[in-house]
Amino acid sequence: MIAVNDKAPDFSLEGSDGKKHSLGEFRGRYLVLYFYPKDDTPGCTVEACGFRDMIGEIKKTGAEVVGISKDGLGSHGKFRAKYRLNFLLLSDPASKTIKAYDSYGDRGIFGMGTLRKTYIIDKKGKIAKVFERVKPEGHNKEVLEFLKEAKAA
After folding, report:
1. Are 63 and 32 contacting, i.e. CB atoms less than 8 angstroms apart?
2. Is residue 89 part of a domain?
3. Residue tagged active-site, from 23, 44, 65, 143
4. Are 69 and 100 in contact (CB under 8 A)?
5. At CB < 8 A and 24+ separation, what contacts does 20-25 make?
6. pLDDT tens sequence across 74-114
7. What total of structural domains would you count in the chain?
8. 44: annotated active-site residue
């Protein structure tokens, strides 16, 4: 179980921009790393569009948003284009990073898979906040509120 103040697990994943990305490239700023089950599904779309709509305010706090699912880059590309998503999506087809972040488990009637979870990683690569069992509606607002408080501290 990953907790606040733990060192965030590193990753190396292909991004929707065609490049490989790792945790280290986000050092020096906050990272909103959110895990979601599947591109272009109702809850995942609400969550992604919420981040899209607040990306300007989130960036003003010095943070970046990155979404991770096991979907491939083709699916990520379509999802980003369809909803004009303005942040990076990473592909984790083997669920290695998803599991490293304790974001894989029993999804009830949907079976085993990626859990909807968000981590805020601080400028030094440590876990600053964990949002468990995320509800897509309004999640963007609770993330922004946390980032504003962190920036003010």
Report:
1. yes
2. yes
3. 44
4. no
5. 21/66, 21/88, 21/90, 23/121, 23/125, 24/125
6. 999 999 999 999 999 999 999 999 999 999 988 877 778 89
7. 1
8. yes
